[in-house]
Amino acid sequence: MATCERKTGMVSGRSVIVVDTPGLFDRILAADAIKREFGKCVEMSMPGPHAFLLVIKLGRSPEEEKNALKWFQENFGPQALRYAIVLFTGGDRLKGRPVEDLLPRRADLRDSVHSCQNRYHVINNKEKIDRTQVTGLLEKIEAMVIHNRRTYYTNAMYQEARRRMREERKMQRQKYEMRIRQEEKKKEQKRATIQKEIKSAEKWKKCCSVLKDVGAFVEGGVEEEVCAAGLGNALGLLDYVVDDYEDDIKTLTKKLSKLK
After folding, report:
1. Which UniProt keywords apply (predicted)?
2. Which residue ranges make up each domain of the chain?
């Protein structure tokens, strides 16, 4: 189902209005389209729904259930949980065991039930003739409605939840942008430091190269053997220093390229 559908009827002497919505994991609709359809469900049940049935199919992945509850709270606000009941479908998978046996082993299901103040109901899809499943659900809904003093989830609550969600996303975006700016500032500082070190290394390399050239020229004109030997050692040291600076420049240049 790609759109919301509103149906009315009499069940066990009660007039019931049900607005069926697309599934949260409906592959036909995009995320924004699903949000729009869920917004319509509040309008279609004006003045507002007395109950939300959070349908959870037993056997679905825990991650999907966790995401579904999170999505519901984010889009309808925490107040909506006052009007929510978890409806487990696929009860035949339990093979006669109570769902309470499953909850201790499934944190995702347990959390969903706990968030809805331990309100839940199980439907066995293979026993459609059993009307007690429906009447039992209606009794739980009625008990919740009485507990909530017959109030309902209003469109104003929904709009407030949407406003808060927009503000939260705006804050998250601002925090993200600030973090990016701070990281870029740190990178720029690192780049400036490395560039400064490269310039310094190039300067000293150039100085050493000049000294080496001057020394080589002088060495050619020295007659004393001892002095010439000492100058030769100094020139050898300058060669080493120049090579060392070249290595430093290469290393720093690589670091600089990684920061771009």
Report:
1. Coiled coil, GTP-binding, Nucleotide-binding
2. 5-161, 175-259
